[in-house]
Amino acid sequence: MKRARAPGKIILSGEHAVVYGAPAIVCAIRRYTTVGFAPLHRSRTIRTALTGISAGKHYRTAALQRLKEKLDQRFDQYSRGERAVQNILHRPDDLVIYSLATLFQHLPLPGFSENRHLPVPGRLSSQSELPLGAGMGSSAAAIAATLVLYENLIGRPMSDQQRFERVRFCERLQHGKGSAIDAAATVYGGLQTLQDGNPAPLAATLGDGWYWILSGIPAVSTGESVAHVRKQHGHDASLWQQFAATTTALQTALTTGADPRPALRENHRLLTHIGVVPAPAAALIRDIETAGGAAKISGAGAHRGDGGGIILAYHPDPQAIPALLAPCPALLWDALHPAERGAHLLEDNDAPA
Predict the structure, then answer these.
(1) Where are the alpha helices (DSSP H) in the chain?
(2) Which sequence spans correspond to the domains of the chain?
(3) Does CATH place domain 210-335 in 3.40.630.30?
(4) 336 and 52 in contact (C-beta within 8 Å)?
(5) DSSP letter string over 53-114?
(6) Which residues pair with 191 in a beta bridge?
(7) Which of 43, 66, 209, 213: disulfide with 311, CB 3.0–4.6 Å?
(8) CA atoms within a 13 Å half-sphere pointing along the CA-CB vector of 220
(9) Could you give the CA distance from residue 223 to residue 345 in angstroms, rounded to a whole number?
(10) Alpha-carbon distance 168 to 20, whole Å?
């Protein structure tokens, strides 16, 4: 079985604000989605088996283009305000299969099969270390790993730039707008800055003391949260300028070795102002600040419900955050370990992710 994997991500700064032209900083993390493919020669379908996501489904290879057209139509309906963003995709499998359909539509494959736009039938499986719906880039990682896998299966690898654009294009079905943040992290790896949708590597090292904490799966999708903020604050140009200044301050701290806590605390204040920090997350962030650290929601957060998704936390004493979280065994958390490599094919002797 051929396999590929792609890392998840943690947003350091710029969530929501990046939609309005502000810069963002994102870090790929060493938690992966791994996708595998095994051909089935007496089949006319691709069978999905996405562990922890769905029970699987058979997709006829001859019908993939029709599926793509149907999902494109639903996105157009969303763009016209006729469909909610959470109703574009009816199954999580659809997003992965859609990415396949777009790949085969755009790559010239003469002689590859009877119809040059049809992939080989087989079993497409995945496993992920990324919690679904937590804001850690699970959907982008699944798309990127699927693309890398099939590019190599057919011998037509794309450049990182081409893959970045393809992941962002496909992801619009999940979030209502293609996420350059998620695509940059999972395709390029490492620390990336984004300005006007264009990624660039950030020459900085995070060092010790950085952690991510899952404060609960949000009750709303990223697309719903972004739409809510747009409705409430979309025209407040001065607000997004404040967000931009905060990201610039954090970038300066990271590249010069200065204290990042003031920028993180200001970012938390701004995210609280736009209403995406649920009360339980706010309470935990308050405890971290009281202990001398700083923390903020990383990702879209949520405008309703108790789950806020990922919290990014920093303390100059690397033991302070673990000590604070020790009485909370139900919380999922870990040190932030950057993944220096983006989506890539796994060699046969590589350990599974």
Answers:
(1) 64-79, 92-106, 138-153, 160-175, 180-188, 222-233, 237-256, 261-273, 279-290, 320-325
(2) 2-202, 210-335
(3) no
(4) no
(5) T-S--EEEGGGHHHHHHHHHHHHHHHHTTSS-GGGS-SSHHHHHHHHHHHHHHHS--TTSSS
(6) 27
(7) 213
(8) 22
(9) 30
(10) 17
pLDDT by residue, tens only, the chain of 353 residues: 889 999 999 999 999 998 898 999 999 999 999 999 888 777 777 878 776 666 577 888 878 888 889 999 999 998 888 988 788 888 778 888 888 888 877 665 444 444 444 567 788 888 999 988 888 988 899 999 999 998 888 888 899 999 999 999 888 887 777 679 999 999 999 999 999 889 999 999 999 999 999 999 999 988 788 889 999 999 999 999 999 999 999 999 999 999 999 999 999 999 999 999 999 999 999 999 999 999 999 999 999 999 999 999 999 999 999 999 999 998 999 999 999 999 999 986 455 44
DSSP state of 145: H
Asked whether 138 and 8 are in contact (CB, 8 A), the reply is yes
Closest CA to 141 of 102, 86, 213, 189: 189
The two three-digit tokens of residue 328, written as one number: 């909370």
Whole-angstrom distance, CA of residue 48 vs CA of residue 58: 7
Q: How many CB atoms lie within 10 A of CB 264?
A: 26
Quote the tokens at residue 311.
Answer: 């919290």
